[in-house]
Amino acid sequence: MQSSADSSVSRLLGxxxxxxxxxxxxxxxxxxxxxxxxxxxxxxxxxxEDARIIKPEPLAKAFVxxxxxxxxxxxxxxxxFSHDFVxxxxxxxxxxxxxxxxxxxxxxxxxxxxxxxxxxxxxxxxSAAPLKAPSLVRGPYLLxxxxxxxxxxxxxxxxxGTQSRFPPQERLATLKIVRVDLSENPTxxxxxxxxxxxxxxxx
Length: 203
Hints:
Layout: H1 2-39, E1 46-47, E2 53-54, H2 66-80, E3 83-84, H3 88-99, H4 102-122, E4 125-130, E5 135-143, E6 146-160, E7 169-179, E8 189-198
Antiparallel strand pairs: 1-2, 3-4, 4-6, 5-6, 6-7, 7-8
Helix pairs in contact: 2-3
Protein name: Type IV secretion protein IcmL
Transmembrane segments: 12-35
InterPro entries: T4BSS_IcmL/DotI
């Protein structure tokens, strides 16, 4: 009986040792895989609107066409100045993250903060419409190791309250659009600065 009991204990001990060994091996494998995943650089693949892959290009190369840059500027302006007093925080954040560089976001915030304060205090809805198509003032040229475009676009800013509408404010928006890494913006470009000035149409 004693011999049988000792044999059972030995078998159980052996099984436990094997289980512990298997568990340790699994933990080592899991830790190794986790380390590999964490240390492997993430490759960003950008695609066009029709699902064609965009190959990474050096920031100094202006691989984006002037037409696309002008279209991007129009989209950015429309999103940047379409807000209401309820959802302005969300719409502002979305426009900033989608169209602006880190530096451009600061410029955008400075330009629009007084407007957002007025929306909130007077409970207004704001929208923007182009007065003319945006124009390429300069570029693409190389600055700081990346391609740059300077765009100007006259826009009308409309404000409407619950019981009143206000005359549109005509502004000339000047945007500096720069090449960015595809991990920052899948379009490969972003607004690096924006300025608003009164718009006076010239004959």
